[in-house]
Amino acid sequence: MQAKHFKKRDTILEYLRHTNAHPSAEKIFTDLKAQIPDLAMGTVYRNLALFKEKGLVSSVATVHGVERFDANTDPHVHFICNQCDAVIDLHQMQIPETLYEAAEGCCGGKIADYQVAFSGTCRQCLNLMKSGEAV
Predict the structure, then answer these.
(1) Cα 8 to Cα 14: distance, rounded to the nearest angstrom
(2) Residue 104: left (phi > 0), alpha (psi -120 to 50), or beta?
């Protein structure tokens, strides 16, 4: 019985490691349900909490009240589309060292980690809006 539990855990973690979509718990559950018919929503939530606690995944954003997850825990910037709810990695964007210094100066502490997210309308949604299609 224990092996099944770890198989589910491993499958959830592998799913997260192989997607750039920043899925919600509900999306993970839906996508894995066919592969693991006895998967329960509670199992997904418990494992996500465990992964966050162990630093294996991070919660990158809450989009319309739904928490989104990322297995890439290296500091990087995200863009959240207000139209389609996409969460997009902006790996090419570097955060200047002066930002850390300014944050530490403001709080009087030492920055250990950060999350930066921009929000707006993604390129695909802008193109759809320009072409007159519904978003």
Answers:
(1) 10
(2) alpha
Helices (H), 1-135: 2-17, 25-33, 41-53, 97-107, 123-130
Put simply, whether the predicted model's pTM sits higher than 0.70 gets the answer yes
| Beta-carbon count within 10 A of 68 CB | 21
Which stretch of DSSP H or E encloses residue 66?
Answer: strand 66-70
Q: What is the pLDDT of residues 33-61, one digit of tens each?
A: 999 999 999 999 999 999 999 999 999 99
Of 15, 57, 49, which is closest to residue 32 (Cα–Cα)? 15
Cβ distance 96 to 135 under 8 Å? no
Q: Which of 56, 30, 25, 59 is nearest to 42 (CA)?
A: 25
Q: How confident is the model at residue 2 (pLDDT cuts 50, 70, 90)?
A: low
Angle made by CA atoms 38, 41, 45, in degrees to the nearest 5: 125
